[in-house]
Every structure is written in structure tokens, then in C-alpha cells.
Design brief:
About 20% of the residues lie in helices and about 40% in strands. It is an alpha+beta fold. It has one domain: Thiol Ester Dehydrase, Chain A (Roll), CATH 3.10.129. The termini are far apart.
Length: about 110
């Protein structure tokens, strides 16, 4: 939306990063079975701008699980309003830590099938 854009009509990188963090957080919470918090965002790369009116899709994949942490690779893709073509605009690696009710790190439970 226009409120999320700079004077040139490009969407703010911080807005896009926020959407990517939400997607990564969903993956982290589901995998850890509860609350998980962002502790780092690495390798953030902006390949192309997103402009007002573009459709943005965000994809997040769990790439590693430690004792309390999870690494999630995230990509954002844009599709112009009247086009079927899409392109990757941003990618990053987010690190989350599972936390308990006391807000301290807790172990990520073993994966269940």
C-alpha cells in the first residue's frame, strides 16, 4: 500500500523484512510447539524493488534445528498486478530460539511424524 512506500513508490525494505519475519516465526512456532523468538536475521539480500500494487508471496523453509534454535531460510517473491510472471526480490536467513513461559530458551522437541 502507498503508506508502506518511499516517495519513489518502492515498498520499504523494513516492511518486507517484517513480512518475512512473520513467515519464519510461523514455521518456528509450529516446529518448536510453542513460542519462538527472532534472535538474528542474516544474509538479507534485496535483489529487486517491490512497487505499490505488486502481489508479494513469502516462503519459509526450516533448514536446521539445534538444541534450542532453528534456522529458517526465507524468500520473498513479487508478481506485478497484471502479470503471471514472478521473480525473487528478497532472501534472508532467520534464527529463532524456542522459549518457555519464563521467556528463557527451552529445548526444541524431537520431530514427530
Amino acid at each position: 500500500m502507498p503508506a508502506d512506500a518511499n516517495p519513489y513508490g518502492d515498498i520499504f525494505g523494513g516492511w518486507l523484512m517484517g513480512q518475512m519475519d512473520l513467515a519464519a516465526g510461523s514455521v518456528a512456532s509450529r516446529r518448536s510447539g510453542g513460542r519462538a523468538v527472532t534472535i538474528a536475521a542474516d544474509a538479507m539480500k534485496f535483489h529487486m524493488p517491490v512497487v505499490v500494487g505488486d502481489e508479494v508471496s513469502v516462503y519459509a523453509d526450516l533448514s536446521a534445528v539445534g538444541r534450542t534454535s532453528m534456522t529458517i531460510e526465507v524468500e520473498a517473491w513479487r508478481r506485478a498486478r497484471h502479470s503471471n510472471d514472478s521473480c525473487k526480490v528478497t532472501q534472508a536467513r532467520f534464527i529463532f530460539v524456542a522459549v518457555g513461559d519464563d521467556r528463557k530458551p527451552r529445548p526444541v522437541p524431537p520431530e514427530t511424524n
